[in-house]
Amino acid sequence: TVVAYVGLGSNLEDPTAQLARAVAELASLPNTSLMAQSAFYASRPVGPQDQPDFVNGAVQLSTELSPHQLLDHLQAIEQAHGRERLRHWGPRTLDLDLLLYGNDSIHDERLTVPHAELANRDFVLQPLLDLNPELVLPDGRSIETLRQACPDNQLRLLPP
Ligand SMILES: CC1(C)Nc2nc(N)[nH]c(=O)c2N=C1O
User: Fold this and answer.
1) Which range is least confidently modeled, 28-37, 79-88, 114-123, 148-157?
2) DSSP state of 135
3) Which of 28, 31, 118, 134 is most buried (most C-beta within 10 Å)?
4) Alpha-carbon distance 132 to 61, whole Å?
5) Do the beta carbons of residue 139 and residue 145 sit within 8 Å?
6) CA-CA distance, 88 to 80, in Å (whole number)?
């Protein structure tokens, strides 16, 4: 099995409920078990500001699924949450991103792992630190170091 990290985000239709439901759905994927889930954090949107604040989190999975099988499931869960891509970087009910898949680097037409924006988004880095403070990227950079260098998006820790 492989340890994979999935990022969650939402800013429509009760984001904390969307994330909580998505965690349960991820935990029940085939040949997959939920190892840990991060706290949830609220923050202002990075990019277009004319949309609601986001809630973000991450989960640590142990899976036998391939990266592409896992991606298929993530996209199916997003669809089940009624995600509509009306505009690039626009608001959405649920965003699931495959952040890390073991120590693999993957770059194909469907998948970029580690996630391309991971290193400069505190709403991704902080949940990853919650899950594994020792986490290191395939290229050797530590998540802890990246988090310290990352622009501060004033994350607000939400109560469990
Ligand atoms: C619109 C954009 C870039 N900004 C975000 N901003 C925040 N705070 N959280 C997100 O998950 C997020 N996702 C995005 O895709």
Assistant:
1) 79-88
2) -
3) 118
4) 12
5) no
6) 20
> 14, 41, 36, 12: which is closest to 23 by C-alpha?
36
For residue 45, the ligand 1 atom closest to its alpha carbon is 6
Does 156 contact ligand 1 (Cβ within 6 A)?
Answer: no
Instruction: In whole angstroms, give the CA distance from residue 72 to residue 100.
Output: 15
Q: How close is the Cα of 18 to the center of ligand 1, in Å?
A: 15
CA 45 – ligand 1 centroid, Å: 5
What is the rounded distance in angstroms from the CA atom of residue 13 to the CA atom of residue 97? Answer: 19
Token pair in block for residue 145? 């170091």
pLDDT in tens, 58-76: 999 999 999 999 999 999 9
Q: pTM for the complete prediction?
A: 0.97
Residue 7 CB–ligand 1 contact under 6 Å: no
Q: Decide: 19 and 160 in contact? Cβ < 8 Å.
A: no
Which residue among 50, 72, 83, 122 is the active-site one? 83
Would you state the structure tokens that stand for residue 94, as one six-digit string?
A: 């649920």
* Complex prediction ipTM: 0.99
Show the tokens assigned to 114.
């580690």
